[in-house]
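[Automated response] Your request has been received and processed.

Submitted sequence:
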Amino acid sequence: MDQNTRRILEKYRDVTLAINIMAINKIPFMITTSRNMHFGTAELIHDKTKNTLMRSIQQVVRAYHAKGFKACNILADGGFECIRNDLADLGITLNVTSRNEHVPEVERYIRTSKERVRAIASALPLNKYPPRLIAEMLYNVIFWLNTFPHKDGVHATISPRTLIMGLAIDYHKHCKLAFRTHVQVHEGDNSTLRPRASGAKALQPIGK
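Generated structure:
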């Protein structure tokens, strides 16, 4: 990492997160994106209780802290007011919007994510989508959104994924199998005449 990159990262070490809950086919997901760095996350959640929200947020905060960043502020709507004190214990300030207003960064991110999930779904020969498949479609979308440098990001050539996770894209690992590509899955060795491989659909890049 060159000196200029280090200087940029030092400038944006204090992170502001925009968060919200998004639903696809009534399946809730916790969505976060960071101001300036534009690193996004999505997590399937089973309910909207206080404990669930805090567990999800803490996972995201730890990911930033692992790379030397500090989550200082969270922008959200009034539905997250219940965790204000818990966030304060972590040194995070919660700013909530007024009634009937939304946080622009995360709302734009949600709209983009949903549009891309719809694009994937439209190419699938299915009439119904299992919850697991919906989750994998969303995770695939988030993966690729994080993989390329954001036009308004903090660095012209380093992607959000590399900034936060320290992982760069590799053609041989990530670009050979597109979502829903037909693959053969090894079932293990056996001494019978049963096939040792079965057909499946690729849902995530290799070596993610």
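Summary generated for your ticket: The CA atoms of residues 70 and 146 lie 19 Å apart. The mean pLDDT is 87.
If you did not submit this request, please reply to this message.
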